[in-house]
Specification:
23 strands; alpha+beta; globular; 24 helices; 6-stranded mixed beta barrel
Length: 812
């Protein structure tokens, strides 16, 4: 066997062009396969960085009307379920939000923080490297504010002070004592850097049932996930019966802990793309197989001589397989190196792109990647070399010796054409999927938003109770900040809002007069936000009827609302919306009725994923705006329209905010076009990746068509010479060459288009509606393949046209 490898290596070194082309082709397929497998490994196969991660589960409510609709658990429900459940060691909870950090050198800074129950870290099985964990007394009413901080926060902001335990920081306006430091790279649940105690008190006040938490736990020994599911289902039924009203969800869902953090759309897209790169690998293997067969066809005499001198069929098979194994090994190493680089770039892209990737997801190599790399290289060697090896083992000695070096091994041309047809079919699938993904991305970019995002700078500020205890204090802050922002160079309008477009307004149930008898679970929903007077001006939202907000709308004036045209048409289809009354969150007895004073144009207030939700009620019936003067939020967004480069105003905006309150950091400071890009990030990256796969597939298919046509022209030199001698013109010879290639392309299209139709439906969850069935995509794919055929046939056709009839006949 070693002698076979030495002989194969010498043979490959004597054919450097063949070797280089084969390695590059195969490395493309292997590298893409390793890269996509690394994605699946990072998201699915790698264990979570906690002890016994398989025993960790996540619990949430679900809505049976939409199977994809998962619901966080109201805090009051969590407290009841925590005491009654019998399947988990404990039912821990957390919620995430803004943590304004002060008491450090430099300006105040906004951190991503998590409010966790005292048993959360112990449930995960992670302990601080300094100090202690949170304890039950830390959650009690009136307890001293304490915090556990992240390793990077300790290192970068507190200079890795070993005496940090007991140090006081200002978090959300309150002096807070540091009690612990977490290990390096710990950032539960997503990318948090400070952990605060989640109150375990049962607040009886208004809105207490609106606090939502995420819950998780560790299964008790001997308890399965199915048993935990049954336990919580029964608990939910009992709790709803005890209260005499339905809970927020009507079904319990207990799932693997990691499943909560990886969107099904991401997993689905990743698996689909993994299948796509395997198709690229198959195309590459088919190409290399064609090249290997052509190479050994040209060496038919050599194989015949070796066989005549006593070489067994097995020895000939091993010779071909040895060359294939060496090619696959080189391609595997090159592909692995490329996949490593691509993985690092993908990690950076995903981290910067949407900020919703769990901290433990990374593309670092582990044994899964190494095992897959070795396995895929071996599979590629078998796929690319086995068929040529078996054909080489069936060499006809007499024919090979008689035909000389121009002989062939079996009917290689027929097999080669079959492989090319298969390559074209696989390329069709990838080209269609790339077309669908790109069409979806373009469709998303062209979708009307109803707002003007150009020349708008936005940001967010969190005001907490310690410094801003009531609505009047929050209004004073925005009133003081507004003229400072107006005074910045080029600023023409400034607006404040509880949330801005594209960030996802608060979705609330609503009622109109006469809807009192409707049960809360059946009420429709609308997107709501509190906005200042110039909000519609900043975003270019046109007034259709009535008026916008102005100085008449104060905290003491009648409560009013402005609604979108779509909402007005939906709720009052046969009457004007002006003067009508609407109530948000009607379940709350203290929720006020609002009089509609204006109707504005429709605008998109959430991202496309939310607006394309399964159930219409989850999309919202439209927008309901309240004046910020009558409902000032604790966390306020601002937007200003300005001339020139709005990003250049960033530091001036921060300075203006510090001029009002130096303890309030500004975060999410960016242009609204950046928010739009972030919203489109998922569809764009899927389109980019499928585009890369399709380009590789197309190049490989072109190479395959070229190789078969070149081999065919070479094998039919005498026939072409005879045709030329008998008077065949250039058009006839050209048609002869193109006919061969066109046949393979047509066969590939006939096979590939139905498969592409089926395969593109796998992208349904991550593309815009209708993109998968766009006939333009299929027309473009056919046009691209036709152009590829002409390009691939160019050199073989020119060679055929240059055949000298006399020389071809004399050589024969």
């Amino acid at each position: 066997m070693l002698a076979d490898f030495r002989f194969a290596l010498r043979a490959l070194l004597r054919s450097p062009v063949f070797t280089a082309v084969s390695v590059l082709m195969l490395s493309a397929g292997i590298g893409l396969s390793i890269f996509m497998f690394s994605s699946i490994n990072a998201f699915v196969l790698k264990p979570l960085p906690f002890p016994d991660p398989d025993r960790l589960v996540h619990f949430e409510y679900t809505d049976s009307r939409a199977t994809s609709r998962n619901l966080a658990v109201p805090a009051l429900d969590w407290l009841d379920l925590r005491e009654r459940q019998k399947s988990l060691q404990s039912l821990a909870a957390y919620t995430v939000g803004t943590a304004n950090l002060g008491g450090i050198d430099g300006p105040a800074e906004r951190l991503s923080g998590a409010w966790i129950s005292a048993d959360a870290l112990s449930t995960l099985g992670v302990v601080p490297i300094l100090g202690r964990d949170l304890a039950a007394p830390d959650q009690g009413e009136g307890a001293e504010p304490v915090a556990v901080i992240g390793f990077d926060l300790w290192q970068q902001h507190l200079n890795a002070d070993p005496a940090v335990i007991g140090r006081s920081l200002r978090i959300n306006g309150k002096p807070t004592r540091v009690i612990g430091v977490m290990p390096r790279d710990f950032a539960f649940p997503m990318a948090e850097s400070v952990w605060l105690p989640l109150s375990s008190g049962r607040s009886p006040g208004p809105g207490a049932d609106q606090i939502r938490v995420k819950t998780f736990g560790r299964l008790l020994p001997g308890v399965s996930m199915a048993q935990a599911q049954a336990d919580f289902t029964n608990l939910m039924s009992g709790l709803a019966a005890e209260r005499g009203e339905p809970l927020r969800g009507d079904q319990a869902k207990v799932e693997a802990f990691a499943d909560e953090f990886i969107l099904p759309q991401i997993l689905g897209a990743t698996r689909t793309m993994f299948i796509a790169v395997l198709l690229v690998l198959l195309i590459a293997c088919a190409n290399v197989a064609s090249l290997v067969m052509a190479r050994f066809s040209a060496r038919a005499r050599e194989l015949s001589v070796r066989s005549a001198l006593g070489a067994s069929r097995g020895r000939l098979v091993r010779q071909v397989m040895s060359e294939s194994m060496i090619i696959a090994a080189l391609a595997g190493m090159l592909g692995y190196a490329g996949a490593e680089v691509a993985g690092q770039l993908m990690t950076q892209t995903m981290t910067a792109g949407n900020g919703f990737m769990p901290y433990w997801v990374n593309y670092s190599t582990d044994w899964h990647d190494l095992a897959f790399s070795g396995g895929i290289a071996l599979a590629a060697a078998l796929l690319a070399g086995l068929l040529p090896a078996l054909r080489a083992g069936r060499v006809d000695i007499q024919s090979g010796l008689r035909q000389g070096s121009t002989g062939s091994i079996g009917d290689g041309s027929k097999l080669g054409r079959s492989l090319v047809a298969a390559e074209v079919a696989l390329s069709v699938i990838l080209l269609v999927c790339a077309g669908v993904a790109i069409r979806s991305a373009l469709q998303a970019q062209e979708a009307p938003l109803g707002i003007d995002t150009g020349q708008v700078l936005s940001g967010r500020i969190a005001m907490f109770e310690a410094d801003y205890p009531d609505a009047a204090a929050r209004l004073r802050f925005t009133d003081d900040l507004a003229p400072r922002l107006h005074a910045l160079p080029g600023v023409s309008a400034v607006a404040f809002a509880s949330t801005l477009p594209l960030m996802g307004y608060e979705r609330q149930k609503y009622a109109r007069v006469g809807d009192e008898a409707i049960e809360d679970k059946d009420r429709p929903q609308a997107w709501s936000s509190s906005v200042s007077d110039d909000f519609f001006k900043v975003f270019g939202i046109a007034l259709r009827e009535g008026r916008g907000f102005d100085a008449r709308d104060t905290a003491s004036s009648p409560l009013v609302a402005v609604v979108s045209a779509g909402f007005a048409a939906k709720v009052w289809p046969h009457a004007s919306a002006l003067g009508q009354r609407v109530q948000l969150n009607p379940k709350d007895a203290q929720s006020p009725w609002l009089e509609v004073v204006g109707v504005v144009a429709d605008s998109l207030q959430a991202d496309y994923l939310i607006t394309a939700a399964t159930l219409p009620a989850h999309r919202g019936d439209g927008n309901v705006f309240r004046p910020i003067s009558q409902n000032p939020p604790a966390i306020v967004s601002f937007a200003l329209r300005a001339e020139g480069n709005v990003a250049a105003l960033g530091e001036a905006v921060r300075s203006a905010v510090r001029g009002v309150d130096a303890n309030l950091p500004v975060y999410w400071l960016q242009g609204m076009n950046q928010w739009r890009d972030k919203m489109l990030w998922g569809s764009n990256i899927i389109a980019d990746l499928f585009g890369v796969f399709a380009v590789f597939a197309l190049l490989l298919a072109v190479a395959g068509i070229y190789a078969v046509l070149a081999f065919d022209v070479n094998a039919r030199t005498r026939e072409i010479g005879v045709r030329r001698a008998l008077g065949a013109g250039s058009r006839g010879v050209l048609g002869l060459v193109l006919k061969r290639g066109a046949r393979q392309v047509i066969i590939g299209l006939v096979i590939g288009i139905p498969l592409a139709l089926a395969f593109s439906r796998l992208l349904g969850a991550v593309v815009m509606p209708g993109a998968a069935n766009d006939p333009l995509v299929y027309a473009l794919v056919i046009a691209v393949l036709a152009a590829a055929l002409l390009f691939a046939a160019l050199i073989p056709a020119r060679r055929a046209l240059r055949v000298d009839p006399m020389l071809a006949l004399r050589n024969e």
